[in-house]
Sequence to fold (261 residues):
Amino acid sequence: MHKIIRLAAIAAIAAVAASCSHKVAITAHRGYWNCEEAGFAENSIKSLELAQKYGLWGSEFDVHITSDLVLVVHHDAAIQGKKIWTHNYSDFKDYRLKNGEKMPTLDEYLTQGEKGGTVLVFELKSQIDKAHEDYMVDKSIEALKAHNLFDPKKVIFISFSRNICERVAALCPGFTNQYLEKDLTPDEVIAKGINGIDYHYSAFNEHPEWIEQAHKNKMSVNVWTVNKREDIKKMADLGVDCITTNEPLLVREILGGKEKK
Ligand code: MG
Fold:
């Protein structure tokens, strides 16, 4: 009996692999790769360069603000125990990423982004209060404009903060704006004026119907951070528009001709 169930499960996985018929975009997570060119630190200018070189659809990066209001590109809210928002930018000048690069400012990162070849998946990190979040959104828009990147074909926004997503919705009409926290259904997200979702794949394992529900609302659907072969196949088959991954070359191999450029 047990054996029969297992075989049925394998057959279901095989059917999934064969049935993905739509185009799926690939986004490098934090610009990070787990491929052989080691030394590419996440959120580094080098990793963005690599995404551009390989012609990935998108490359994600994360933005924080320092206490002297400099926008910087980094994943974690603290660096070596120092919370970014409580320290001046100059306090981080000696800090080095894994690849030896210093932590980029948003301006430095966008200087590379402007060279093109990949959509910038711009994650605005939650901040200490609404005022800081609002400031961060406004300064980000200013920076994108200064780099000729304030264009829905060049940038999409993602955030765990509802406040940030709502401000982006108000100030950036026409841009893809995805909510990351899987506490709302697509209907609830769209009711707040936010036009997309970017959920961890456990959300779609639990609620595969959310993908169709989102598409009925003309919302875009991204999934993070999918690195294993069987999960990549399953998410592609469920109909997501974009897969965020540390393994872009594996996703490319699995999608075959179904990669959206
Ligand atoms: Mg991120």
Remarks:
- The pocket of magnesium ion is lined by residues 30, 60, 62, 123 (CB under 6 Å).
- Residues 2-255 form a domain with the TIM Barrel fold (CATH 3.20.20.190).
- Residues 1-17 have pLDDT under 50 and may be disordered.
- The CA atoms of residues 143 and 193 lie 24 Å apart.
